[in-house]
Amino acid sequence: MKRVLASLGLGAVIVGGMIHPAIAEDSQRIHAEVTKATSSSRQTSSEVNVGGTWAVERLAIGQSFTVSTVPNEGKAPFVWNASFPFTLDDGSVVGECAANEAELTCKVTEIPESYKDKTDVTGTWWARARLQGGAIGTTEGTITLNGKAVKTLVWGDKDGTGTCTNDCANPAHYEYANPENVKFGWSNADGSISWGIKWIAKGDVEYTVKDFDAKLGTTVKCAKSDTWNPDTTEIITATQVDPNTIKFTAPEGSKTCVVYPPEKTVLPEGQTSATNHAEVNGMKLEATATVKSNGGTDGDGSVKPTPAPAPSVTPEPTPSETTPTPEPTPSTTPTPAPKPTPSETTPAPKPTPSETTPAPKPTPSETTPAPKPTPSETTPAPKPTPSETTPAPTPSATLVRLPVTGAAGSVAASAAIALLALGGFFAFWARRRAARSE
After folding, report:
1. Residue ranges of the chain whose pLDDT lies below 50
2. Could you say which of 105, 171, 220, 320 is the most buried, measured as most Cβ atoms within 10 Å of its Cβ?
3. Which residues in 259-285 are b (16+ Cβ under 10 Å) and which e?
4. How far out from the chain centre does Cα 388 lie?
5. DSSP structure string for 176-212
């Protein structure tokens, strides 16, 4: 088993027949990617947005992925705004994306009935964060996914192209302390809205600040430089006139001051925005803030069709059992009759020599000469001319057929033929000698 797991690259450790928990942990990870990240500015509190995709073969309780960042001198470059539900396209909630300072973990905690049979479940995710003091002095930060660095985010890269496009003259810095008279608000994780009141200030001037829609605290900050650098920012404790009003004198060198009402505005159900009114030394300020989501997800999967069961019919016999031998295709060309086998073509045995075979003709050298007349004949035979060479056969050379049959007949016939041939030869030889003597 160990060798099998090692060959698969799982790097598992098996103890007592059980797989190391690290393997189970890996199997519970959601495959996620960071596809885009933006930074609106290089000042602290400016907005950071990170988003990407996620995918699982099938949803299972405990699956998760975590997005974070690498600290700078022990401080997080940015922190997530708030937690939000882990939802799917149809609004089903399968878990939560919990924001814990610099870590955002999206985890499946339940599986809706409609997703129990779905496979290849995929979707997207995004989350909002804000630049923090950990980024000061740097120009970029590193985003990690499940502990692995996956993307570099350049501070001030508003378009996510990898290049700074806003507030690029210096590295990340404290928030600008722009002298301005403004009322502003932002949404919180719980759907409420918080407010701020900022105004142009001068040292040694007394200010009365009143918020008509929220209670005020006694803490006031006044900046003496272009940023809210703690070294050049003075914190003052104001006098509480009433729950909505405070009074204080700005310290020498102040350029701008700000106060944050500690009380949040809770919106009625169905309402997504609120308006706040304030006044500084009679100067009226007003702002409307809209609740903004701090992140979100979507996703969906597919249901593979269940194959129809095979029909319960009696299977047909195999071709070898039922398929008849195909008849030959008719042809216009006549098919020749098959040649007989050797047993059909063997000729009938020839009759024995005694029945049909005639005596063989003698070869030219064995030609039987015409018989000479016997001494009793009165008419002498004319002498042959010199050109005549073939002597007449002697009476003893006359061919006689012997009526002998069977094997004995064959032997007798062969002997007779041999005797005749020998007799013919001697007769021929005698005639030749007689011719030469004449």
Report:
1. 1-24, 321-323, 328-382, 384-408, 411
2. 220
3. bbbebbbebeeeeeebebebbbeeeeb
4. 111
5. B-----EEEEEE-TTS-EEEEEEEE--TT-EEEEEES
Backbone angles phi, psi at 189, to 5 degrees: -60, -30
CA–CA dist 88, 92 (Å, integer): 5
Nearest to 288 by CA among 209, 185, 182, 214: 185
The closest of 214, 75, 186 to 131, measured between CA atoms, is 75
Question: SS3 string of 363-429?
Answer: CHHHCCCCCCCCCCCCCCCCCCCCCCCCCCCCHHHCCCCCCCCHHHHHHHHHHHHHHHHHHHHHHHH
Place of tokens 């339940």: 110
Would you say the pTM of this structure is higher than 0.70?
no
pLDDT of residue 29: 85
Q: Which of 254, 252, 214, 222 is nearest to 238 (CA)?
A: 222
What is the model's pLDDT at position 316?
58
φ, ψ of residue 27 in degrees (nearest 5): -70, -15
d(CA 104, CA 96): 10
pLDDT (0 to 100) of residue 378:
40
Per-residue model confidence (pLDDT) at position 177: 95
Q: Enumerate residues 6+ apart whose C-beta is below 8 A from 110.
A: 61, 93, 94, 95
DSSP string, 31-69: EEEEEEEEES-SBTT-EEEEEEEEEESS--TT-EEEEEE
Q: Exposure of 185 by Cβ count < 10 A (0-12 exposed, 13-18 middle, 19+ buried)?
A: buried
CA atoms within 13 A on the CB side of 20: 11
CA distance 23 to 5: 10
Residue 203: alpha-carbon gap to chain centroid: 70
Q: The tokens of 153 are what? A: 């985010």
Map residue 85 onto helix, strand or coil: strand
pLDDT given at position 374: 45
pLDDT digits (tens, 9 = 90+) for 202-217: 999 999 999 999 999 9
Rounded to an integer, what distance in angstroms lies between the CA atom of residue 16 and that of residue 4? 17
Q: What angle do CA 214, 218, 223 make, to 5 degrees?
A: 105
DSSP state of 213: S
The answer to whether 105 and 64 are in contact (CB under 8 A) is yes
pLDDT score, position 143: 97
Secondary structure tally for the chain: helices H, strands E: 5, 23
